[in-house]
Amino acid sequence: MTRRRWTFEPGHTGAEFVARHMMVTFVRGQLKNIQGFVEVDPDDLDHTRIQATIDATQVYTGQPERDAHLRSADFFDVENHPTWTFTGGRVQQVSATEFEVTGELTIRGVTRLATFHTTYLGQWDTPWWEGGRDLGRRRRAGFVARTRINRHEFGVSWNDSVDRGGVVVADTVDVTVDVEGVLDPVET
User: Fold this and answer.
1) Burial of 15 per CB tally in 10 Å (0-12, 13-18, 19+)
2) pLDDT tens digits, residue range 35-62?
3) What is the pTM assigned to this prediction?
4) Which distant-in-sequence residues (6+ apart) come within 8 Å of 178 by Cβ?
5) In Å, what is the CA distance from 173 to each residue of 27, 104, 110, 157?
């Protein structure tokens, strides 16, 4: 089989993070404007290449003051580190639709290995419009990838304490990335 490149459709690709807040609830944040691609030969997963860049400056939690705090040096420090990246390609197939994808995740300029538990959601031929023109059909594929990170490993260590030994923000953060990839018209 031939290697295929799936380019992320930024309008339909996004990331969400979830962290425990004040020991009693969870706060969710969204990140859009994800650029990237997956190059894969389904018969040769050993040569898979994945690159993704996430715009951290547009973090959204639904609360403007919290969003500003997350963009500050206390958390994401977007003035100095406006993007997060993932580069990888070590893929282990677990089942027909489940994969473990390992690569280098960089947040705040700190790079660590991360493994995303990834589910392949299927493919579909869909209409493709650009500039108000119907350019025919293009194949799309969907994936959802999940991981849990310790934010301190990436230098995201701001916190404050609450009564009975609690903290404002938990150490672990769950990250989910939903990807809609569009098959490039030329195979590599």
Assistant:
1) buried
2) 999 999 888 888 899 999 999 999 999 9
3) 0.87
4) 12, 13, 14, 15, 16, 142, 143, 144
5) 10, 17, 16, 12
For the stretch 92-143, pLDDT in tens is: 999 999 999 999 999 999 999 999 999 999 999 988 888 899 888 899 999 9
Yes or no: say if 151 and 172 are a contact pair by the CB < 8 Å rule.
yes
Residue 73 backbone class (left: φ over 0; alpha: ψ -120 to 50; beta: rest): alpha
**Can you read off the two tokens belonging to residue 80?**
């100095």
| Residue carrying structure tokens 């392949």 | 120
158 burial (CB, 10 Å; 0-12 / 13-18 / 19+) is: middle
